[in-house]
Specification:
167 residues, mainly alpha, two-stranded antiparallel sheet, 6 helices, elongated
């Protein structure tokens, strides 16, 4: 097929982007509306393939739609300063690092939950489950705890259920 007359299926195959996503990108203006053949079928040009490849790569790197829109404008306007793109990438990198820190905290909290269950109640009933106790506990201010900053795990007395901090 001619590179200037790609069907939506061919465009999807070449970019590893599914057809509903391509239609969505057209709908929200990330991709220009497809040209139409006499039979009403969409067809795309080489420029559309290049732009969709760019958009797909931005999304693969986790850029949100609005940042992809800004990057796409920079992509189209080759006369802008490269530092604009670099600054956007740096802001995104900073956000990714914050999320990584949050994920490490989440991992640590989940490890603590599993360990508390292994130590206190594994094999018992859910009513005595340390994880359920921790997930339902309020902090000292009477508020629900954060997922990534649990208070010390509940400790169980043999044969009974314990309250947070009780030995």
């Amino acid at each position: 097929m001619n590179a200037d007359r790609l069907t939506i299926g061919a465009l999807a195959a070449q970019t590893s982007c599914n057809i509903p996503t391509i239609r969505y990108y057209e709908e929200i203006g990330l991709l220009p509306p497809a040209q139409r053949a006499a039979n009403g079928h969409r067809y795309y040009r080489a420029e559309d393939l290049k732009r969709l490849t760019f958009i797909k790569r931005c999304r693969d790197f986790g850029f949100p739609i609005e940042q992809v829109r800004e990057l796409a404008h920079l992509f189209e306007d080759g006369d802008r300063a490269c530092v604009d793109v670099r600054d956007m990438a740096q802001r995104h990198l900073d956000a990714v690092r914050v999320k990584l820190d949050e994920m490490r905290e989440l991992e640590s909290s989940l490890m603590a939950f599993v360990s508390s269950c292994d130590a206190a109640c594994i094999g018992g009933l859910t009513r005595n489950c340390a994880i359920i106790e921790d997930l339902s506990a309020l902090d000292l201010d009477g508020k629900a705890g954060s997922c990534c900053a649990p208070a010390e795990p509940a400790k169980r007395k043999p044969g009974g259920s314990a309250k947070r901090g009780e030995v």
